[in-house]
Amino acid sequence: MQEIKVPKIQRLAAELRTKIQEGVYAPGSALPKVRELQESEGVAYQTARDVYRVLEDEGLIISRRGEGTFVSPILGKIHRDGTGRYIKSAREEEGARGAFAAEIARLGMTSTATTVISRERPPKRVAQILGIHHSAKALVRARVMRADATVVQVATSYFPGDVAFGTQLEQQDTGDGGSKSRLTDLGYQQVRIRETVDVRLPSKQEAEALSTSADRMVYEITHIGLTEHNRAVEVCVHVMPVTLWSLSYEWPIDQNAV
């Protein structure tokens, strides 16, 4: 039986994958530079780059511009459960400050965020969703979000001024459960969530914040929180590297069908 020849890219990626999984290269450790991999394996420079791209797509390694290539501190991907992450018990689990903090804590990591709070006009599409005049200001919370020291997401939340101005939503620490719990306290409990997911290239600013290259795709999730009166009281735009996150959603269908 003729032996099947494995292409160089897949073979080298498999060898590196095994070394990462076995701890030869520990999470967060530096990998050989592309030129070093090329020379040690006797392959073309583009082949060496493609090996790293395969592993980056799998969420096993990350590339930092000007620094090199490293084993991801998060082996695999962060699972974002779009169905259950906003349930009160999940977002407040063990005092978590919202759904993201709870997700990261379940990985055994610590979540932190650099948050810039302001009052400003939101983008036109956000103003339309919130049902406010295009010249009206909203409360804006722009966050760079980390798992331990790794930036894994940038997210900007918008709240109508008449709902959020002068409340704890303007504080750095929004308390257990984050913004959704504070909106509930204010009488604006969200009973439905609507999300739109797009995949696109990051802007220059987003790529810099996420320490990724401009040719690596990101998810853009536009998240809308609606009250029982169908009022949108929160719009959050999440930007997340596809190499670090997996998304899942679940909902019932035809429950009463015969």
Question: How many E strands?
Answer: 10
Helical/strand content category:
alpha+beta
Strand content: 25-35%
User: What integer value in Å does the Rg equal?
Assistant: 21 Å
Give the overall shape, derived from the CA principal axes: elongated
> Termini, distance in Å?
53 Å
- Mean pLDDT, to the nearest integer, reads 90
Widest beta sheet: strand line-up: 4-5-6-9-8-7
Q: List unreliable stretches of 5+ residues.
A: none
Order of helices and strands: HHHEEEHHEHEEHHEHEEE
Write the layout of secondary structure elements.
Layout lengths: L7 H14 L12 H8 L3 H13 L3 E4 L3 E4 L6 E4 L6 H4 L7 H8 L4 E10 L3 H7 L7 E10 L2 E11 H4 L13 H8 L6 E9 L3 H7 L7 E9 L5 E10 L3 E4 L10
Parallel strand pairs: 3-10
Antiparallel strand pairs: 1-2, 4-5, 5-6, 6-9, 7-8, 8-9
Helix pairs in contact: 1-3, 2-3
Model description:
The protein is elongated. The strands form three sheets. A six-stranded antiparallel β-sheet has the order 4-5-6-9-8-7. Strands 1-2 form a two-stranded antiparallel ribbon. With about 260 residues, the chain is of the alpha+beta class. The model has no long low-confidence stretch (mean pLDDT about 90). α1 (about 10-20) crosses α3 (about 45-55) and α2 packs across α3. β1 and β2 form a beta hairpin. The longest helix is centred in the N-terminal third of the chain and has 14 residues, at about 10-20. The chain has nine helices and ten strands.
